[in-house]
Design brief:
The complex is a heterodimer. Chain A has one domain. Chain A has helices spanning about 5-25, 25-50, 55-85, 90-95, 100-130, 140-165, 170-185, 195-205, 205-215, 225-255, 260. Helices cover about 80% and strands about 0% of the residues of chain A. Chain A is mostly helical. Chain A starts with a helix and ends with a helix. By secondary structure, chain B is an alpha/beta fold. Chain B has two domains: about 1-230, Rossmann fold (3-Layer(aba) Sandwich); about 235-310, Alpha-Beta Plaits. In chain B, about 35% of the residues lie in helices and about 30% in strands. In chain B, strands 6-7-8-3-9-10 form a six-stranded mixed beta sheet, sandwiched between helices. Chain B has a four-stranded antiparallel beta sheet with strand order 2-1-4-5, with helices on one face. In chain B, strands 12-13-11-14 form a four-stranded antiparallel beta sheet, with helices on one face. The two termini of chain B are about 35 Å apart. Classes of the chains: A mainly alpha, B alpha/beta. The interface of A and B includes residues 5, 16, 23, 86 and 93 of A. The structure holds adenosine-5'-triphosphate and magnesium ion.
């Protein structure tokens, strides 16, 4: 294992996903449509409900975070989905590639794409609703983005693991289950309003902490002691777990023949 | 020296839920492949050929058996082996929007090629596989034969010592098949690559393989050089005749005729060499006053060989 080969394998996946993304119009549609719809509808709703500027910022941060995470995790899931859709999964795993190359390579593309979406949404929020993403400052913003990316990485890898475990028919299920968890993070509300047991789940989600830290700059007092450190620690823990699950799923697929079945 | 030494390989697929279905795909297969040889696996649909190939190529874990590939245990040293072997399938599939050159380059990078070395390798493979004019064509726009050639190019990208080809000429027109076979023969001759291939075409196996194994229901029924096997199974060609009257009892006794059966109004005679026997048979039929309505010559179906083998 040399660093050169490691980077090369990651780069190969990055390039592959980028080329696929650039050439499939529908991927672009997915990229832009829902995020824009999200920000517009939430922004207009906040106007209708006559929310204060701070409250409007609160929910807009939520919907922007959700968009970033969604776009980025979708790209990470493409690490296996592209191969599943094109039935080339067995070629992929015949090559000396590790799952880290797949997930990192597609994560890089995911970050670039969701960064583009973020810039667009930030401009839209500013123009239509006077919402300023840089108000908390660069460091806070970049930390927030990193939090979103990390959460997306975890979610994407988990989706990969589920698809490899249950086969391509489980695609929708994989997304639904993982995204359900995501919505529990305090996207549109502080988690203090949640019933206890759901709040407990929300507290286990890294995004909750990154949202909390970022929103604290918009005048909402932080609900946690060290949100960023907690969010990072949780993200890394889950990333490790998700990768382990993905690896186990691949090994199982080699045993059961699912790897071959998904390639024919 | 052996490239592959497999002993008592077993594999059972368990699928379906809630009702479990078990398929015993391999039931104790043993196999030895010499380095630098071309080994052919023949057998009917569902015999276990692809399963065996996948196990040898590390894509599938065996349930039982010891398998040494290029001197390494195929399960324990799978990661290491993947650098040294490769595989192409007759039903290839790659990412639809990637262009031919990009596909080969993508896999090249996974094997550690970059920069000038990568470019040279991709150029070389594209030339060898006659893909030059299609280099910038997206994969989904290629014809079956071209897709197969892309698969072949991809399978050579890491300069493998051992190459698995699963039905490499499936669905190709005769002209292209001939070229693919010539290419496979050249790979072995010029680069000394050990090749294990599966096929449904007897002629292909005959022409290419140093050794053949017949596999059916997960077991190897016979193995040997093409010559040995032909002697063993009395492989021949089939002359199918539509006659009036439909039955001609003495046909089965004619020189060179191994057996005769009636199928759907056709009389099918298996002969040792059609080219040599056909004129005599037609002449004799004519002399006997039999009207010949139709004549066809073909190779025996694999199934017919198996009928012989299973006896
Ligand atoms: N991934 C899988 N999951 C479940 N069963 C499988 C799987 N792959 C193969 N089988 C079963 O194992 C048996 C052997 O299949 P295999 O694909 O090895 O046959 P084959 O000799 O390659 O046939 P063909 O000539 O049709 O390609 C078949 O009964 C098949 O249904
Ligand atoms: Mg097969």
């Amino acid at each position: 294992m040399s660093w050169r080969n490691e980077l090369l394998a990651v780069w190969a996946v990055t390039l592959r996903n980028a080329l696929m993304g650039a050439r499939n119009v529908f991927f672009f549609f997915e990229l832009l449509f829902w995020p824009i719809v999200g920000v517009l509808s939430i922004g207009l709703m906040s106007r209708f409900l006559e929310l204060t500027e701070a409250q409007a910022s609160f929910v807009l941060v939520g919907t922007i975070a959700l968009s970033i995470v969604n776009v980025c995790q979708l790209e990470v899931a493409y690490a296996v989905l592209l191969d599943v859709w094109s039935k080339s999964l067995k070629h992929q795993f015949l090559a000396p590639i590790g799952i880290r190359h797949l997930t990192l390579g597609s994560w890089v593309v995911g970050m670039v794409r969701s960064l583009a979406v973020f810039v667009l949404l930030a401009a839209l929020g500013r123009w239509a609703f006077g919402f300023h993403v840089l108000q908390p400052g660069w460091v806070a913003l970049l930390t927030f983005l990193l939090g979103c990316f990390l959460t997306a990485w975890v979610v994407g890898v988990a989706v990969c693991a589920l698809i490899t475990l249950f086969g391509n028919r489980a695609e929708a299920f994989a997304w639904a289950s993982v995204n359900l968890v995501l919505v529990l993070a305090g996207i549109y509300y502080p988690i203090s309003v949640l019933p206890d047991f759901i709040a407990a789940i929300a507290k286990a989600i890294p995004l909750t902490y990154f949202l909390d830290a970022y929103r604290s700059h918009y005048g909402f007092e932080s609900e946690f002691g060290a949100p960023i450190a907690t969010g990072l620690a949780l993200s890394l823990l889950y990333a490790a777990l998700a990768h382990w699950a993905f690896l186990a799923a691949i090994q199982r697929a080699r045993r059961t023949g699912l790897l071959l079945k998904m390639s024919e | 020296m052996l490239a592959i030494d497999a002993r008592d390989v077993e594999k059972t697929f368990r699928s379906g839920w809630p009702r479990r279905r078990e398929t015993r795909a391999l039931r104790g297969v043993s196999l030895a492949v010499e380095r630098g040889s071309i080994f052919g696996l023949l057998g009917p649909n569902g015999a276990g050929k692809t399963t065996l190939l996948s196990i040898l190529a590390t894509l599938l874990t065996p349930d039982r058996g010891t398998i040494t590939v290029l001197g390494h245990d195929v399960v324990r040293d799978a990661a290491l082996l993947r650098r040294r072997l490769n595989m192409a399938s007759g039903r290839p599939s790659f990412l639809w929007s990637l262009r031919v050159g990009e596909i080969v380059a993508f896999y090249g990078r996974l094997y550690g090629l970059s920069g000038r070395a990568l470019r040279a390798r991709v150029d070389g493979l594209i030339e060898i596989c006659e893909l030059g004019p299609y280099r910038r064509v997206p994969y989904s726009d290629l014809s079956t034969g071209l897709k197969q050639r892309v698969a072949l190019a991809k399978s050579l990208v890491n300069d493998p010592e051992l190459l698995f080809l699963d039905e490499p000429t499936l669905g190709l027109d005769p002209d292209v098949s001939v070229r693919v076979r010539a290419h496979i023969a050249r790979l072995r001759r010029e680069q000394g690559i050990t090749i294990v291939l599966t096929t449904h075409y007897m002629r292909e196996a005959d022409e290419l393989c140093d050794e053949i194994a017949f596999i059916k229901d997960g077991k190897i029924l016979a193995r040997g050089t093409p010559g040995e096997l032909k002697r063993q199974i009395r492989l021949g060609e089939v002359i199918a005749l539509r006659l009036d009257p439909a039955r001609v009892p003495w046909l089965a006794e004619s020189p060179g005729v191994l057996r005769c059966v009636e199928v759907d109004g056709w009389v099918e005679c298996t002969v040792d060499e059609a080219e040599k026997r056909l004129p005599d048979i037609l002449r004799a039929l004519h002399a006997d006053g039999v009207v010949i309505r139709n004549v066809q010559v073909r190779e025996p179906e694999l199934e017919e060989v198996f009928v012989e083998l299973a006896k």
